[in-house]
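Worked example 2:
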Amino acid sequence: MLPIFIILNIQTIIPGTMTKSYLNQLTNDIIGAAVEVHHQLGPLLESIYHECMKIELTNRNIPFKTEMVVPVVYHQQRLKDTR
């Protein structure tokens, strides 16, 4: 499966609830979502996985943001903003 960049929206998480146990469960839920998408679709294009992961994470009530601009600095020079 190709990598899909979806960023969890941690601002929606209640302060004080981000325990190791919570993060472990969240990790398992995200991996479970990815496995479900791959199980249902098999090998396909990244853009299709991306859309399906958005549906699966929403169905599992996992807050996320996607297509975020990520600043990249290489040798003290900021590159053009990339997604």
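The radius of gyration is 15 Å. Residues 1-9+20-66 form one domain.
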